[in-house]
């Protein structure tokens, strides 16, 4: 059966940047924060729906 799953890279370091958001909203108290761990791919119904 096809699965829905999100793949996470727990070691990926990145910086939150509101100018890179897919959403039209630019409100985030986390803009500029350096984080570790990030979703890198989402698979829905066995097909890639989103990939970093």
Task: Describe this entry's structure for a reader.
The chain is mainly beta and 52 residues long. It has a single domain, classed as Roll (Urease, subunit C, domain 1), CATH 2.30.40. 0% of the residues lie in helices and 52% in strands. The chain has no helices and three strands. It is flat, with a radius of gyration of 13 Å.
CATH class: Mainly Beta
* Strand-residue proportion: over 45%
Q: Which sheet architecture does the biggest sheet show?
A: 3 strands, antiparallel
Number of helices: 0
Strand order of the largest sheet: 1-2-3
Low-confidence stretches: none
Q: Keywords, please?
A:
about 0% helix; about 50 residues; 3-stranded antiparallel β-sheet; single chain
Gist?
This protein has 52 residues and is mainly β. It has strands at 5-15, 34-44, 47-51.
Draw up the topology in text:
Layout: E1 5-15, E2 34-44, E3 47-51
Antiparallel strand pairs: 1-2, 2-3
């Amino acid at each position: 059966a096809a699965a829905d799953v999100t793949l996470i890279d727990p070691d990926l370091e990145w910086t939150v940047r509101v100018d890179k958001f897919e959403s039209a909203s630019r409100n985030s108290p986390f803009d500029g924060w350096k984080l570790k761990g990030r979703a890198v791919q989402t698979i829905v119904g066995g097909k890639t729906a989103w990939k970093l």
